[in-house]
Every structure is written in structure tokens, then in C-alpha cells.
Amino acid sequence: xxxxxxxIDQKLIYHQEGNxxxxxxxxxxxxxxxxxxSFTAVLEGFNEAERRILRKSAVFQRAxxxxxxxxxxxxxxxxxxxxxxxxxxxxxxxxxxxxxxxQRLYAFRDHALRIALKGELEDEDRQDTxxxxxxxxxxxxxxxxxxxxxxxxxxxxxxxxxxxxLKHYEEAARLKDDGxxxxxxxxxxxxxxxxxxxxxxxxxxxxQRxxELRYINLYYDYHVNPTKEDVEARMxxxxxxxxGHRVRRMKYLTVRTAFYFFQxxxxxxxxxxxxxxxxxxxxxxxxxxxxxxxxxxxTPLGKPYAERAxxxxxxxxxxxxxNRMDLLPPAMTV
Length: 334
Hints:
Strand content: under 5%
């Protein structure tokens, strides 16, 4: 991408009269001259101090502005005069290393080059930079842009701050959660949260919080990506966390029944669903069983028609009471 942008910048590839045009001979000479050069050869016009600043800027996952760069350089102990930064960034622009938009947000034009630059930092140095970026985003960006919480979590995870990363991935997921397990964006963030959870020592997270995260993550997978290969192992984790807790057991059986339905295992689905309904104690349990009522009422399981009709009727009533309008279409088709 860097070379392509350079060809465009030098007008060896250009747009004219509605079509892209090129100068083949000059392009061939340009590429031959650069053949075999490493990615970092594009940095040959920068001294070591300037390259170090560019390495730090490469740790930003997305774009960055002048203020953000100066902030993280100061927080990571770099003895840099802020006055040199505008000129440095202008040179990086002129060499097609960076691009800049109308908001004065800078970004590397070539992703592979950014990764290579970031990789030149020592592990501890890179982690400290991730930590500084997370702090900058949390204090300076998140108050006005709550969606930045995902980027905060990413940098905290890369810094090895797993407790903080788990907290912010969970916040990002709940920010996108629609309450009906239909948000692919929320599913991605719940997946990332559970991925962090899996890296943490056993028992380091409250069991109720762990159960809720794993339960929601599994239920999202049922709605968005039910063919994941590790479903059974994750279901067993959920079962163990539910032992000795009635409501947790109900939630576990809800998602277990749903996966049996998807897999076409009707006998197990019926058994799991019946156990779930038997655990119901009062109206406060309706949110945990409403989807199972609809599943049992809409799936032929050898029950008499009148019994299925009654289960489905109760499912419709509970769907309305629980504001689960997403359950009405499948129920109404029967």
C-alpha cells in the first residue's frame, strides 16, 4: 500500500477523464529501484530519535492526533520537545508514511509497516505505551465518545492489564447489547471479554460475574454463530458454574435447550426444557424461561396438540410481559 500510494503521489498512477492512467516505464523503474528493500527502508530519512517516536505512534491501534502523541510520549518517559512533533509528522506525511484527515488525525498508510515498527519496541516498552494510550483514551476521549471503551480495553489487554481489560470489554459489549442477543458487535466484545477471562487465574473473578459473562456469550453464539466448535466445552464450564444455584441452573438450561433445538436433538431438548420449567418459582423467573416456552410450543415433540397450544399460549403471554418482541414472529408462524 505504501508503494501504491507513492506511485499515486508521484503521479505515476493518476486519474484522468474518469479512468485510472499509468506510466508503465517510470513505474517499472520505481519498483526496480526499491526491489529488496525492507519496510523500514522508508524510514531512512529519519534519525534514531525520530524513529523511536514513530515506533511509539505505531502502537496506536487506529488514528492519533498531535495531542495524543505528545501525551503518551510524556507518560512513557520520552524526553521529547513537543515543538518538534508537527515538523516530524509533516515529513512523515510528505514521504507517504502517514496520512491525515480533516480532523488532523494521523494514521499509518501501510498496516504491515505499522506492525513492523511496533514490533521493534522492547516488550516492556511496548506494553507501557499500550498502557499510556489506554489511560489517554479513558481520560481524554471516553467522556465525549463512550464507544472508545473498546479501544481502551484493547490497549489494556495488550499491556497485560487483564482485570481492566475485562471490565472495559464488558462495558463495550453491554453498550452494544440490544437485550435480545441479536447484536453482532456485542457478540464480538463478549467474545473478547471471555477470551480475557480464560487467560486469568481460576477464581480471580467473582463466580456470579463469570457465570453471567459466559452465559451471555453462549446465548449470543446461539443467535449469531451457533456452529462454533467449542460450544460443548463452554457449555460444561457454564454447567459447573451453575451447580448449587437455582437461577444459574435455569439460565444454563435455557441456553442448553436452545442449542439442542439448533442441533435437532429433540429428545434432549424436551428433557432439558421440562427440567427448566419445573424450576420456575414465581413471576421473577419469567425472563429466564420465556424463550423455552416458545421453543417447546413451536417444536413437534410428540406432545398432544392441546398441550403444545397451551405452552405456546403461555409463551406468547410471557413474551409480551417480558418485552421479548423478538420471540413473537416465530410463535405466530405456528
